[in-house]
Design goal:
mainly alpha, 9 helices, binds fe (ii) ion
Length: 254
């Protein structure tokens, strides 16, 4: 509500891109705050290492967003440095909070507070981490599409660098989940019959097999002209129900 009160009327795609980037700043800040608890709870050594590595990557991504904001603001007002005293003074009050990411992190924290075995906890942490990654892939994919539409190649490249890192993190998590973690979480006893095992396996893998393909990232593609020029959209079928569903699913909830 506060954000709605203070937000200036957005007149063009540049304004929308700035808003999207501001949203991503909040996303990265929240992830940096949330990840240490996930790292601590994870027991699988590879998962722990992957999360630790990605925390470092996330910190670098946050700095990259500062660069993006400087480039975007520099175009019209010489960057944040030229903001007035009052603007700086009330900067804290106007800070945007991404409610979509807040919800995902809240849910992750809630599941981590449940009583479960170490193996099940690892599977739950992977699922939470992938929800985070998919949200980021949606946000960065959209922002990159806007930057490309605006012919701002510098910004598009910076956003794409992060987008690719998110894809890599997502794929590592899927590999880990399907490679061993989900199976351990299945808690199969030697006396279990095949039928129940199959049912459990299906349910478990649904948590962590949701890797987003690079073809599904053009969440902002309907706004731009050069859809086919987008690397991520090359294998996408423009009018396929699959792509339409992916685009719909990528819509943000604020
Ligand atoms: Fe990130």
């Amino acid at each position: 509500m506060q954000n709605q009160l203070i937000m200036e009327k957005m007149q063009d795609l540049t304004a929308l891109l700035k808003h999207e980037v501001e949203d991503l700043v909040s996303v990265e800040d929240q992830i940096i705050e949330a990840m240490p608890a996930m790292i601590e709870r994870a027991k699988n050594t590879t998962l722990k290492k992957n999360l630790r590595d990605h925390l470092k990557v996330t910190q670098a991504q946050r700095k990259r967003l500062d660069e993006v904001q400087k480039l975007l603001n520099g175009q019209e007002q010489g960057g944040n440095e030229k903001k007035g005293f009052l603007s700086n003074l009330f900067g804290g009050m106007t800070k945007h909070e991404c409610k979509g990411m807040k919800g995902i992190i809240d849910e992750g924290q809630r599941i981590m507070a449940e009583d479960m075995t170490e193996s099940v906890m690892d599977a739950a942490i992977i699922a939470s981490a992938q929800k985070i990654e998919h949200y980021e892939i949606c946000g960065y994919g959209t922002a990159r599409a806007y930057a490309r539409e605006l012919n701002n190649q510098k910004v598009a490249k910076l956003l794409e660098q992060t987008l690719n890192e998110e894809y890599d993190a997502d794929q590592l998590l899927t590999k880990l989940a399907l490679g061993s973690v989900n199976e351990k979480a299945e808690g199969r006893s030697p006396s279990s019959n095949g039928k129940s095992n199959g049912a459990m396996k299906k349910a478990a893998s649904a948590n962590s097999a949701g890797t987003v393909k690079k073809t599904a990232t053009a969440t902002g593609s309907s706004v731009k002209r050069g859809a086919t020029k987008q690397k991520g959209a090359k294998a996408g079928t423009k009018s396929s129900p699959k792509k339409a569903a992916a685009s719909k699913a990528g819509k943000k909830v604020r």
